Amino acid sequence: MILRNKTLYLLYIGIILICVNTSLHAQQFYFGADLSYVNEMEDCGAIYLENGFPEDPYQLFADHDCNLVRLRLWHTPDWYDNLNSGVRYSDFQDVKKSIHRARERGLHVLLDFHLSDNWADPGKQRVPDAWLAVVDNLPVLTDSLYNYISHTLLDLDQEGFLPELVQIGNETNKGILLSPEDDNAGWVLDWDRNSQLFNAAFQAVRDVETQTGKSILSAIHIADPADAAWLVPDFLSHGVTGFDIIGISYYWQYHKPVTIAQTGGIIANLIADFPAYRVMIFETGVIWTTQGTDNANNVLSTVDPSYTPASPENQKQWMIDLTQEVIDRGGSGVIYWEPAWVSSDCYTQWGKGSHYENAAFFDFDNHLIDDGGIGFFQHDYENLSARSPIAVDHGLEISFDSNQRKVVLKFRKSAPDGSYTAMIIDQAGRGIFSKVLEKHGAVPSQQTVDIPVLSPGFYVIAVWKQNTIVAREKVMIQ
User: Fold this and answer.
1) Which residues pair with 425 in a beta bridge?
2) Is 361 exposed, middle or buried (0-12, 13-18, 19+ CB in 10 A)?
3) Element (H, E) at 398
4) Which of 244, 255, 265, 475 is the most buried (most CB within 10 A)?
5) For the chain, which ranges sit under pLDDT 50?
6) pLDDT at 414
7) DSSP H or E stretch at residue 9
8) Cα separation of 472 and 24, whole Å?
9) What is the rounded distance in angstroms from the CA atom of residue 294 to the CA atom of residue 459?
10) What confidence score (pLDDT) does residue 74 get?
11) Domains of the chain by residue range
């Protein structure tokens, strides 16, 4: 969405709000789990058990209706070389292995580009060491970032592992790719620098889409719902475009006093203000016990006062209530961070064991806790149109004619009569064309809509009936 053209922006918002009072993407929902630690835990001897029997954790989560796996990618995590057996994790080879495991079980993948050699979060956004020499040369750094994103995705595509979703940066509240000096200086938010870097990364994703002919949803990621409320407008007002999803981290311990209900309100406001974008919870977590089983200090130790004491049942209920709130407010998914990070004999950078075993979905003997957080995936939620990340079928198909100058709408018998509104949205989130159609009588039927000449690239074609999205297709113009 380009806010520099205020008239176009206001016209676009007006059209959207007339057409729909809910999220553009309300028909899709992701139930996700960040499983970045699984390969490492298994190499460290962890065996995951369900009903007393060993289970492949990817299959276990798929069996419990998880449909998305999130995986972090570090640039060069060479600090692993002096840890445990010296095997690196969350690098390209490890991520490729994890995507393969997810693919075998029909799970979608969100690839998390940390854009660092180590953890990136609101307090740490250090540039990879490979780019230290050019960190203050913005044109060269921007080119390096573009090539890194592009080559990584194209290399994955060569092996059939192109992710369905990618995020550029992890919890990027203070920016990305900072020099050690700027990173240590505290809060740094240079939008002239940030906008060029983010746009280069998103352009790389779009160019990969064009080269492969495959759709990729791209995202920004902000920690704390309260920060997202003002940072998202900042992204857009400073010209950051080309992404599809607003990802948010929400942990009670870190982001209190923001409640589940307030988080839902922030999600609803973001969707109302910026309806071209999906909103998802990219990270969340809650403990099931205040105890631990190793010498590694746990990062989570408190719970929302409304969900005391810490217990498996309250872990599950907190997750169910959060997910229901996200659904009710038009969000598109909830991802639990590291539910399989169990304790082991291996070391982290800070201690031996896990710093999260009291928030995992397994007990201290690695048995799946039946009444714990795993249950949030399969809960019977209200107002949930479809558990699959594939849009619910409303009896309408969208396609182009062979010359790509007409949108073809095919109505099947299940499509109700009445008015439909079709809109084309460009990569910047702008509504560039809309048309009201009437469907009456015989089925199946077909209608065509002449469209303006469009520049090559990806576009979203969305169709509403009353307040419901009934079809949405991401298409490529050659």
Assistant:
1) 431, 460
2) buried
3) strand 396-400
4) 244
5) 1-27, 390-393
6) 63
7) helix 6-19
8) 9
9) 51
10) 98
11) 28-376, 396-477
In what helix (H) or strand (E) does residue 195 lie, and over which residues does it extend? helix 191-212
Residue 336 buriedness (CB in 10 A; 0-12 / 13-18 / 19+): buried
Could you tell me which residues come within 8 angstroms of residue 127 by beta carbon, excluding any fewer than 6 positions away?
115, 116, 135, 141, 177, 178, 179, 180
Question: What type of residue is 12?
Answer: Y
H helix runs in 223-311, sequence order: 225-237, 252-255, 260-273
CA angle (98, 64, 318) in 5-degree steps: 105
Sole residue written with tokens 């060491």: 129
Closest CA to 122 of 184, 72, 172, 169: 172
CATH of domain 396-477: 2.60.40.3080
Instruction: Provide DSSP, 269-281.
Output: HHHHH-TTSEEEE
C-beta of residue 220 within 8 angstroms of C-beta of residue 240? yes
What pTM did the predictor assign?
0.82
Predicted confidence (pLDDT) per residue in 274-327, tens digit: 888 999 999 999 999 999 999 999 999 999 999 999 999 999 999 999 999 999
Q: Is 177 helix (H, G, I), strand (E, B) or coil?
A: coil
User: What's the residue count for the chain?
Assistant: 478
DSSP state of 471: E
Active site (annotated) includes residue 283: yes
Residue 68, judged by CB atoms within 10 A of its CB (0-12, 13-18, 19+), counts as buried
- CATH superfamily for 28-376 is Glycosidases (3.20.20.80)
* Alpha carbon 184 to its chain's center: 28
Let me know if the fold of 28-376 is the same as that of 396-477: no
CA distance 23 to 469: 8
Question: Which tokens is 32 given?
Answer: 């996700």
**Structural tokens at position 138:** 């913005």
CA 22 to chain centre: 19
Close Cβ partners of 5 (under 8 Å, ≥ 6 residues apart)? none
Q: Which one is catalytic: 40, 50, 171, 209?
A: 171
- How far is Cα 3 from Cα 25, in angstroms, rounded to an integer? 22
Task: Determine the pLDDT at residue 348.
Answer: 98
Cβ-proximal residues to 153 (8 Å cutoff; 6+ apart), any chain: 162, 163, 166, 204, 205, 208, 216
Q: What is the predicted pLDDT for the residue at 442?
A: 62
Burial class from Cβ neighbours inside 10 Å (0-12, 13-18, 19+) for residue 21 reads middle
Q: Which of 283, 325, 338, 357 is catalytic?
A: 283
- For residue 449, give the DSSP letter: E
Which of 461, 459, 477 has its CA nearest to residue 469? 461
